[in-house]
Design goal:
The complex is a heterodimer of chains A (438) and B (575). Chain A has helices at 2-23, 103-115, 141-146, 245-254, 257-264, 278-281, 293-301, 317-332, 359-369, 384-396, and strands at 30-35, 60-62, 68-70, 73-79, 84-89, 122-126, 129-133, 167-173, 177-182, 195-200, 209-211, 226-229, 234-240, 270-271, 308-311, 337-340, 347-353, 400-406, 409-412, 416-418, 434-436. With 438 residues, chain A is α+β, with helices and mostly antiparallel strands. In chain A, strands 8-9-10-1-11-19-12 form a 7-stranded mixed beta sheet, with no helix packed on it. In chain A, strands 14-18-13-17-15-16 form a 6-stranded mixed beta sheet. In chain A, strand 4 (73-79) and strand 5 form a beta hairpin. In chain A, helix 4 packs antiparallel against helix 7 and helix 9 runs parallel beside helix 10 (384-396). The radius of gyration of chain A is 24 Å and the shape is globular. With 575 residues, chain B is α+β, with helices and mostly antiparallel strands. Chain B has 4 domains: 69-182, Beta-Lactamase, CATH 3.30.450; 193-253, no CATH class; 310-418; 420-574, Histidine kinase-like ATPase, C-terminal domain (Heat Shock Protein 90). Chain B has a 5-stranded antiparallel beta sheet with strand order 2-1-5-4-3. The longest helix of chain B is centred in the N-terminal third of the chain and has 66 residues, at 3-68. Chain B is rod-shaped, with a radius of gyration of 60 Å. The interface between A and B is medium-sized, with 13 and 14 residues.
């Protein structure tokens, strides 16, 4: 009886160990990733978020709480009213080709990136320290340094992109396939995966990881597939041009956002009434208003309105369904909206992914995208009320009607694992945090 | 209008009326026949439509039943009957199921009446479809017509609905096929027929006839037919479940065939009419020439008789009315000729008698004094020879005077008997008038005679006439003498001349008027008869001589008189 008990205990331990091995990170293996989007250049600013920090890294980055945290830079100090910044670089960092990262190797890359926005800027390298000098104050320099545009990367004859990230490029077929291999000398520690093959423009469901566009959300997925969902960091909105402001207001009142999120987005996302999501701004609930068809019709009756063309991306079935739903809601308010799959028109359906968890930076970026940068000029990240005022000013411009904040969705096969939650409010899936079953 | 024209007109009118009547009758018969045929064809088409409607309805019902009984819908019904049902994941189901069953419309509706999924308008998820929630056993319902809202407008559908129960809750499946023009195009319409579907939510048809029909049916749905020269349209209302007018079936029959037939009839009528008119023309010529030849010959004979040829006879060529007329005409001319001869004879005898009477009367007047004078001479020689010389002297004077008187009388008769032929030369009647007035001047202004005023109203530019001046003066003298005799108590003698331009040619007129007692119409009629006189002393030859002179000059003489208002003689001579 005792022997049997011990035997039972031993078998149970082995079984538990085996089961636990599936959830415990381990090294090795190749991951296939299929992305529906495609790109033909490896410029960091052109890469999709899932690949953004895999190859090249920035000096600083913004965490999910919207705070700046060290990356290739470990410390920074602003002087002379933000006209001078002293950046201390991380030591023991090497590029994929073995060249060490230091002030001399970083300075020309960074200077070329900064010069595009600030022509008067200069950089003085000194060992592991960079001194960035400018005639004008650079209060948002950290935001810029966290952007993919200022990623520290190089190119060589042997490699289209050389960075310091956890993966190095081993193969690149523009527009088709990107092959990555783990960078053993990564300063943050070697990633779990040995390699990853990124297939571009592919909508297969047989890959280890594949993105799930909202248009494909309702398609039949393998039963064992899990969906990884980012924080709702993509603004889905209507951008109006040459439409009377009253008509835009009427449209905003007529659109019922809940069915859009609940049905079209299959409950993945949040109805949007502000430009920034509630989790990011904290005040988005102040903009919320239920649909009011009576008021919308009243507004419409005050303007003479011709049929409005609503442009959307023709190859996006989600966008088409969304455009048709908006046209239906608009019709209830007395506005004739004609969806047109050519992405042009007086109304346009746009997706704006948030660049980071930095609300101020995102708002400035949105204002720039709307062609209204002056309305976000007074934004001060340390003063939330300035964000609210700026966002309200942008909404009052009647140029944009927020519809929903949508997350990024990735389908993962059972052999793919990740730490959950790897990063709270993550805006994208980080391949360096994944491992696969052998 | 000539006889020929009358015959032609009669034949033409007869032909035209006959052709018109025939054409109208034929046209009416053809129209009736055509319309009867169209009515039958329309009825057949409507019956076919009804059959096809029922057939498709059954097909729709079968397909909806299949969907309602499918595993997908049954599973959905079960899932949605749970405590917290999530309908959002079924948003695309309707499209897939509709595709599978080849239906145009399909909606899956939640138990609370909200659309879960719509095949025809996917964006309508969440919208209400309360018509399904009524107290209706949908599983026992047939197919009906329904207006379906689509993103790009409305459509008509043959739809039905089914309820799928899961527990206490019911999932509704409603759908069907679109009733579109393609449906009607599949109907076996006869040639010249067109089937149109007017949906009662679109603008009225462009055709005025169809638009009027639609308007009438919108006021009161019922089957109506209207006709225009080009087409005939029958309108059949198509009602929905609640008897509301949803559409109108317009069966249009072209009347082009009828119009063509009518045109043919019309053209034939015109051709026949034209041929009839031509035939009428020929017939009228032939008939007229055949009928009018004897008539014209008769008319020629009449004209000859009128011209004085009393021996003319009409040819009798037939035994019909015209021949009888010719015979009667010949008989009449014979009778007239005989009567004329007798009249001439009688007039001649009468004239001789009158002449004898006049001659006796004229001669008797001077002979009686001669006899008395001679008897006085005889008695004076026997009774008182001493006074015989004185008596002889006085008696011989009387005898000579009376003998002169006899010579004058005889001279007058002689003059009338031997009127010479006129020697024509240009004569100015003004001069002739002045000469005659001058000749009678002494007589007019004689102391014992009552006063007579003489007026000469002459036209200065009077044209000359070709005449014998002596005979003209003689005629004027007679007229002036007559006028003076007509005014024994005095008066006014007027001689008037003027040019006459008229239809009878250019002539010159001279008038002699008096203010005497005037003449009665009877007297005027007999005035120019030889030896007729209204005077106590006169031969009755004066005006006869005037008429003779005027006649010899190819002129005319007329008299205008009224009792108490004087008399005017008017002579017109050619220039």
């Amino acid at each position: 009886m005792r022997l049997r008990a011990w035997l039972w205990l031993a078998l149970s331990s082995v079984a538990a160990g085996t089961l636990a091995a599936g959830t415990r990170p381990h090294y090795g293996g190749m991951l296939t990733v299929d992305l529906s989007a495609t790109f033909s250049t490896l410029e960091p600013s052109e890469l999709p978020p899932i690949l953004a920090n895999l190859i090249g890294e920035t000096l600083v980055r913004i965490n999910s709480r919207g705070e700046f945290e060290p990356c290739l830079a470990i410390a920074w100090q602003r002087e002379a009213e933000s006209r001078r910044w002293r950046i201390s670089l991380r030591s023991n960092v090497t590029f994929h080709d073995g060249e060490p990262l230091n002030a001399v190797t970083v300075a020309p890359v960074l200077l070329a990136a900064l010069k595009k926005e600030h022509s008067e800027v200069s950089i003085v390298p000194g060992g592991t320290t960079l001194v960035i000098q400018s005639d004008n104050p650079l209060p948002d320099l950290l935001t810029e340094l966290a952007g993919a545009r200022t990623a520290i990367v190089r190119k060589s004859e042997n490699s289209p992109l050389i960075g310091t990230g956890p993966f190095r490029v081993t193969g690149w077929e523009p527009g088709r396939r990107l092959t990555l291999a783990a960078f053993d000398d990564y300063w943050g520690g070697r990633p779990f995966l040995d390699s990853a093959v990124i297939n571009l423009g592919s909508t297969r469901t047989s890959a280890d990881v594949f993105d799930v566009p909202f248009g494909s959300l309702r398609r039949i997925l393998p039963e064992t597939t899990r969906i990884w969902q980012s924080a709702p960091g993509e603004l889905l909105a209507l951008v109006a041009a040459d439409i009377p402001p009253l008509a835009v207001q009427a449209l905003a009142l007529a659109i019922d956002r809940d069915p859009i999120v609940n049905v079209l987005a299959q409950r993945r996302g949040e109805p949007a009434f502000g430009l920034l999501p509630q989790w990011l701004s904290g005040y988005e609930f102040l903009f919320r208003a239920p649909p009011d068809l009576a008021r919308a019709r009243q507004l419409v009756s005050q303007v003479k309105l011709n049929p409005v063309a609503l442009g959307y991306a023709g190859n996006d079935s989600f966008a088409r369904a969304l455009a048709e739903r908006i046209a239906l809601n608009a019709r209830d308010a007395g506005i004739t909206v004609q969806p047109t799959p050519n992405n042009s028109g007086s109304l346009r359906l746009v997706h704006w992914p948030l660049e980071s968890a930095d609300a101020a930076a995102d708002l400035v970026s949105l204002a720039r995208s709307l062609g209204l940068p002056e309305r976000a000029k007074a934004v001060d990240a340390s003063k939330p009320e300035t964000l609210y005022e700026a966002e309200k000013a942008l909404l009052d411009s009647n140029r944009v009607v927020p519809l929903a904040h949508l997350p990024q969705l990735y389908a993962l096969t059972p052999r793919v694992h990740f730490r959950e939650p790897a990063r709270g409010n993550a805006l994208t899936l980080h391949l360096e945090d994944l491992w696969v079953d052998p | 209008m000539s006889f020929r024209s009358k015959v032609f007109l009669s034949i033409t009118v007869t032909v035209i009326i006959a052709v018109w009547v025939v054409a109208a009758v034929v046209s009416a018969l053809v129209t009736n026949s055509f319309e009867r045929r169209e009515t039958q064809r329309t009825a057949a088409l409507v019956a076919e439509f009804q059959r096809e409607f029922d057939r498709r309805g059954q097909d729709v019902a079968r397909r909806i039943d299949a969907i309602a009984n499918s595993d997908t819908v049954q599973r959905m019904a079960v899932n949605l009957s749970g405590p917290q049902p999530d309908a959002s994941r079924y948003v695309d189901e309707a499209a897939a199921l509709a595709r599978e069953q080849s239906l145009n419309f399909l909606e899956l509706v939640s138990p609370d009446g909200h659309i879960i999924s719509s095949a025809e308008w996917p964006a309508r998820f969440g919208y209400e479809e309360h018509w399904l929630l009524g107290p209706v056993d949908w599983n026992a319902q047939g197919v009906f017509l329904k207006r379906e809202e689509l993103a790009d407008g409305a459509a008509l559908g043959l739809v039905t609905a089914r309820g799928v129960k899961a527990g206490e809750r019911t999932l509704y499946v409603a759908g069907g096929s679109q009733l579109d023009q393609q449906f009607f195009d599949s109907l076996p319409a006869a040639e010249g027929m067109r089937v149109q579907l007017y949906r009662n939510f679109e603008s009225r048809p462009a055709s005025a006839l169809a638009a009027a029909l639609v308007h009438d049916l919108q006021q009161q749905p019922r089957q109506l037919t209207r006709t225009s020269p080009d087409a005939s349209i029958s309108a059949i209302p198509l009602l929905g479940r609640d008897k509301q007018l949803l559409a109108i079936l317009l069966v249009e029959s072209s009347r082009a065939e009828l119009a063509s037939l009518k045109r043919t009839i019309q053209a034939t009528a015109w051709s026949v009419g034209a041929a009839g008119i031509l035939l009428g023309l020929i017939l009228s010529f032939w008939t007229a020439s055949r009928l009018t030849r004897p008539v014209r010959a008769l008319a020629g004979s009449v004209r000859q008789v009128a011209a004085g040829d009393w021996n003319t006879r009409a040819a009798v060529e037939s035994r019909d009315e015209i021949g009888q007329l010719a015979r009667d005409f010949n008989h009449m001319t014979e009778q007239l000729s005989e009567q004329r001869d007798r009249m001439i004879q009688a007039e001649r005898v009468a004239a001789w008698r009158e002449l004898a009477r006049r001659l006796a009367h004229e001669l008797k007047n001077p002979l009686f004094p001669l006899q008395i004078t001679v008897e006085n001479l005889q008695r004076s020689r026997q009774v008182s020879p001493e006074q015989f010389d004185e008596v002889f002297r006085e008696s011989t004077g009387t005898l000579l005077a009376e003998l002169d008187n006899l010579k004058t009388i005889i001279g007058r008769f002689s003059d009338f008997a031997k009127m010479p032929a006129p020697h024509l030369e240009p004569v100015n009647l003004n001069d002739a008038a002045r000469d005659v007035v001058k000749l009678f001047d002494a007589q007019i202004h004689a102391p014992e005679r009552p006063p007579i005023e003489v007026r000469l109203e002459i036209e200065q530019d009077l044209a000359s006439v070709a005449a014998d001046p002596e005979q003209i003066r003689r005629a004027l003298r007679n007229l002036v003498l007559n006028a003076l005799d007509a005014m024994p108590k005095g008066g006014t003698l007027t001689i008037r001349t003027h040019n006459v331009n008229g239809a009878g040619g250019n002539r010159v007129a001279i008038e002699v008027s008096d203010t005497g007692e005037g003449l009665t119409p009877e007297e005027c009629e007999r005035l120019f008869t030889p030896y007729y006189t209204t005077k106590q002393h006169g031969t009755g030859l004066g005006l006869a001589i005037v008429q003779s002179v005027v006649s010899d000059h190819h002129g005319t003489i007329s008299v205008h008189s009224q009792p108490g208002h004087g008399t005017t003689f008017r002579i017109e001579l050619n220039r």
